[in-house]
Description:
Chain A is an alpha/beta fold. In chain A, 42% of the residues lie in helices and 12% in strands. At the A-B interface, α1 and α2 of A face β2, α1, α3 and α4 of B.
Amino acid sequence: MSDAHDHHGHHHDHEDGSRFSDTELRVKALESLLVDKGLVDPQALDALIDTYETKVGPRNGARVVAKAWTDPAFREWLLRDATAAIASLGYTGRQGEDMVVLENSPKVHNLVVCTLCSCYPWPVLGLPPVWYKSAPYRSRAVIDPRGVMRELGLDVGEDVEVRVWDSTAEVRYLVLPERPAGTEGWSEDELATLVTRDAMIGVARVERPDGKESAK
Amino acid sequence: MTASPHKLADLPSIPRDADGPVFRAPWEAQAFGLALALHERGLFTWREWTDALAAEIKAADTPDDGTHYYEYWLAALERLAATKGLVTIAEMLQRKEDWDSVARATPHGKPIELKNRPAR
Lengths: 216, 120
C-alpha cells in the first residue's frame, strides 16, 4: 500500500474545534435560514456562484507555477519556503497562514483536501470548486484517493505514490504540477495559461493543448 | 447557467476586473450569490437591491476603497431580507449562535453541519 495520508501540520487545533469569523457566521446564518425556508435552492446557489468564481480563476497560483517551471532558483525557494516565495509575487493571505508547495513528479502525485472552505489557499487559487467543499469529498479522498481522482477524470498509475494532504487553519497546500512535455521555450505567461485550478489541487494534470505549436 | 440576468453594471462600484466581480474571500462570493438568487426568485426587484446597497454604502463611516464592499453588501442583504419578511432578526441571531457553537464543537477536518450541534 503506497498511499499515505500525511498528517503533517495537523496538530493542536485538531481537538479544539473550528472558528468562523463574525462575518462568516452572519453569511452562514442567513444562507441556511433561506435554504430551510425553501427560498434559496443550495444547488442553484452553488451553480450561480460557480459561474462567477470560475471567471475569477486561480490566475495567481498559475503564475506561481509557471515561474517555478521557468526559474530554477524560484522553484527551489518555493519548495523550501513557499510562504515567502509566494509573497514575493505579491500574493498573501490576510490571516498570515503558511503555504506549503508539494511537487508532483513521475513517482509522486499530491492531492489536497479539506472540507472547510476557509482552509483553502484562496489568495492563490481563487474560490474553491463546489465539489471540494462537499462533505463526501474529503472522507473519500482520504480513503480512496485514486477512485476520487478517476471520477474527476484523472488516472494515476499504480506505480505512482499518491500522497493526500489535509489542509489546516495554519497550513494551506498548493500542488506544483509537472510541466507538460512539448512546452520547451514557452514563456512564463504562456505557461501560466495552461495551469488550472484543478491541477493545483491535484485532481488534474497540466496538458499541452493538442495541435498548438510551440510558442513563437 | 449562461447569460446572467443580473445587471452588475447597476451596482455601485462593485470590485471587479475585466472578467467580472472579484472576491477577496469565500464568504464574499456566498453573500454575492445569495442576493442574486433571491432576486432570481422574484423576492425583490433589482432596483430594490441596488437602492438597499447604495443606502448601506452611504451610511457607512469607513471610506469606500472597495475593501469593505461586501460588508455593506451583507448588511444590505440582511436588512432587505428582514424588511421583506423573509427572515426575522431574532432568527438570524439565533442561527448565528448555532453555527458558532457547532463550529467550535467540530474537530478540524470534520464537516461543520448544524445537525451536529451540541444539545443545549
